[in-house]
Amino acid sequence: MKNTQAPLYGAIEGGGTKFICAVGSGPNNIRAEARFETTTPKETMDHVIDFFKQQEENLGELSAIGFACFGPLDPNPASSTYGYILPTPKSGWTNANVVGMLRNEFDIPIAFDTDVNGAALGEWRWGKAQGLQTFIYLTVGTGIGGGAYVEGNLLHGLIHPEMGHILLRHDMEKDPFEGVCPFHGDCFEGLASGVAIEKRWGMRGTLLTSDHMAWDLEADYIAQALVNYALTLSPQRIIIGGGVGNLSHLLPKVQKRTRDLINGYIQSPAILENIETYIVNPGLGNRSGMLGAIALAEQSLQRAS
Amino acid sequence: MKNTQAPLYGAIEGGGTKFICAVGSGPNNIRAEARFETTTPKETMDHVIDFFKQQEENLGELSAIGFACFGPLDPNPASSTYGYILPTPKSGWTNANVVGMLRNEFDIPIAFDTDVNGAALGEWRWGKAQGLQTFIYLTVGTGIGGGAYVEGNLLHGLIHPEMGHILLRHDMEKDPFEGVCPFHGDCFEGLASGVAIEKRWGMRGTLLTSDHMAWDLEADYIAQALVNYALTLSPQRIIIGGGVGNLSHLLPKVQKRTRDLINGYIQSPAILENIETYIVNPGLGNRSGMLGAIALAEQSLQRAS
Predict the structure, then answer these.
(1) Complex ipTM, two decimals?
(2) Which of B95, B136, B232, B237 should we substitute to test contact with A (largest number of A Cβ atoms within 10 Å)?
(3) Is B274 helix (H, G, I), strand (E, B) or coil?
C-alpha cells in the first residue's frame, strides 16, 4: 500500500539496553512503536528492519529513517566508517556497521547521529528548544552524555562531543569516592552518573529521599559541568533529561548552584534573572530521543530533496 | 582617489591597552598600520576614524571594516545593544557604542566580534585552521579567552563564549595560591593567566626559566581546560596564542598532559597519534587578531553582496 499522505518516518532510538522503534511524523502522529532488547548488532538490527518492513505493509512506505544511537559512533558521511559504532566496551558492537545494515534494506535517506544529538533535535523541533540557535541537551542517567545544536547545526566536530567526561573539582574530604569511570575515575560521569550514585550510597538514586545529602553533592557536580558548558559553548538554554536529570527535586538545586558558581560573570538576564527557564527539563519528557530520531529523518529528507 | 583594485578593508584589533588598526586585504597586502593607546572610547575611536579617513585619501575607499574587540560585547545584529561594549571593569567603556561611532562615519558593512573570534577567523582564512569546520582559538596572556568556529560558523550563542573562566581542579597543597579572578578566584584565568603567574611567582612569566616548576603547573591547568573544551566542543584543532600560550617550551608539555588526561577516551588519530598537530600555536603569530579583523570585514562584504 502506497502512502499518499504526509511523509512517514522510521525512528530508531538505539540504547545500550534497548532499542525503541517508531513509525510516524511527530509527537501527535506516532502510528506504531516497538521495543527490542539490545543484544548483538545483527539480531537487534534484524528486529528493527523486520518491524519497519511490517509497518510499511500496514501503513505505507517510509520516506526516511532517523537513527539516534548510543556511541561512540561515526556520524560523518564523508568518512569511510560513517554509520559504524566506534570502539566501545559494549561487547560485539565495536565497528558494527549499523547504518549499512539499514541501507541494504531501505533505499531512502537515513540519518545517523548520537542519541543526545537526536534528543537535542527533537527538543528543537517540538520541545523546549524551539526557535533557539544554540543550546545543549544533557542526559544524566546510567551514564552522562550531551548533544549540542550550535548556530543552527547539530555539533559533530572531530567526532562528536563527549561532554559527560569533563573534569570537575572533587573535594576528597567532602566526597571520598574514587569515581566509576574506567577511563578517568572521577570525571563528571565517574562522580555523578546513576551508576556512581548507586555505588556511593549503596542504593539507586530513585530510592534516596529528596532530603538525602546525596542531592546537594549531585547538584554541585551537575552545576560545575553546566558552568563549564555555559562558558565554553555559550548556549541559550540547557536541557537536562535522563533518569537522574529529570528528578524534580534536583532541578532547583542545580539551577541555584549554577547561577551561584557563574557569580554574575555572564551578564545575561537569561542567567541572572531567569535561571529557571535557562536550565530546564525536556519538553518531550522521555520521548526526546525517539521523537528526535523522527526529526533527524525529517531533516535528512529535506536535505535530500 | 577611487580604488579600482581588489577591495580594501579596514581592520581594528581592539585590546584593553592598545588598538591596532590596519588597511589592506590579507597577510601579503597590508597597506598601512597604526597603533593607539586605549584611553576613552571617544578618544580611541576618534583616532581609529581619523586613521581610516586618512588612508582612504591615500589608498582609496574602504569596502568594509572588521572590528575584533575586547569583551564582553554584544555581537548580535538583532539586539538593541548590538555593537556595544557590555558592562566591564574597564573604566569608561561600559555600554560604549563603538560600532555606532564607526557607522556615523562610514556607510559600508561593519563586522563586530570578539578579539578571539576574530583571531579564530584569521587562522581559518590564512593560518592553521584552513579547511577546518570546527576549532578553537585560545589566547593565554594577561587574561585568558577563547573563540570558536563551529560547523562553519563563528560561535556566539547566548552572548559569546567566556571559556577563560571555566572551573578547574586546584590542588591547594600543590599550589596554595588563591587565584586572581575577581569573579571566581581560582578559575582557569584566575590560576593560569599572565597576571596569575606574575602574582604567584613574583615575576613575569617571560622571566621564569623554562625549567622552572611554574611550567608544569601551568601546563596542567591549560591541559585541564583543553580536555574540557575538547570533550564539550569536539574541535578538530585547538590553536593557542597569547604571550604565555606562545612560549615554545610550554606547548609540548601542554600537548602531552592533554593527551594523558583524555586517556584514550576520544578515539581519534588526531589526539591519539598526532597531538602535536592537534594543539598548535597560531599560524599567523601575533597577527591573528589584526588579520582576523580583515577576515571579518571580508566576510561581512560577502554577506552584504
Answers:
(1) 0.96
(2) B232
(3) coil
